[in-house]
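Annotated sample (chain length 398).
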Amino acid sequence: MKDNIIITELNNVSLFMCMKDNQIDCLDYYKDSDIGSIYVGMVDNVVKNINGAFVRYQKDMIGYLDFREIHPDCILNRDYREAPVIRQGDLVLVQIANDAIKMKQPKLTCNISISGRYLAITLGKKGLGSSRKISESRKEQLMSDLTAYIDGGYDRYLKDHGVVIRTEAGKEDVSFDDITAEFNELKSQMDDMLSVSQTRVKYTIIHKQTDVDIVNEKILKMVHYMESHQAADYEIISDSIPLYNKISEELDYDIKLWTDETPMSVLFGISKKLDELTGRKVWLKSGGFLIIEHTEALEVIDVNSGKNISKKNIVSQINLEAVDEAFRQIRLRNLSGMILIDLINIDNDEDKNHIINRIKRLCVKDPIKTTFIDITGLGIVEITRKKSGQSLKELLTS
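Output written by the structure step:
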């Protein structure tokens, strides 16, 4: 079956999927969300023993702001640098970093970030950075040219702000003029937001991402995935008329509306594949399987042989296959926090080192920051993965 980017809706969730070899290989989703919105909030309560404050950014909405996420330019009612301690009643410019999840309030940050197609500008994270998906030669050239451009026109700007070169800028047909034009536009937007916020009262919304902006971000992610995996001949298909109209009318993508008699979800087996991504058991081609369990403290992935393992090297083969599939499941399910992978017994150092090297490579490939910690004496892999929104199961069942 031909590779495709599938865009559909399920339970009021917009789903964006890269389908390769009739398998979901990349997945992102969007449900009505306030992530990215910027408000003038007021500190409701300071809680020193958890190193944070609760900020009311709407009359009926409170979020958590970590002390480490405070930026002096975002304290609006006084000069924070003169007395760098957050106080109850302070007016503070905050951005929604994560939506509320279960009993937890939304996570807020003063490291305000705004993005374009080629760049992102952030308060609090200083210097120039780049997407890991850009080739080294292109990255070096862009980093050098953009540093010279910014330093030449805006003295000390990179000492007070962070600028990230996004994956789209890595394409050879993107001109440097396009990139610098976007930098000037984003810089102007950031300057305007900081200036305007000084004159606004509490609960004022300063910036809100539009649905079109968010949909564009999701499609770009799918396109980048396809291109990085050498999938040149693919179509973008949607069976959602509202999404199709939004994309075809307001975004620059060649998209096809699904009109066949057989529903797209049936032909591509989407519902079944999503059930597998929210279920406990995942089969491996070798006949082994994974059991994925969620607890309040951590995620646990148990590797089982599923059959006789008397063949030579079968344990090593199952472990390597299990590690690959575990990381695929982690990425597609958007699991986060502490994650343990309980491998089948590893008998020798050579196999252990082989597995560790494989895990480290998979951590680097994950677009969300994922860190390998260790393999314990009992053969349990310990990794951590940064929180990035809800897990797939939480989103589809909330």
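Annotation: The radius of gyration is 23 Å.
Annotation: The longest strand covers residues 38-47.
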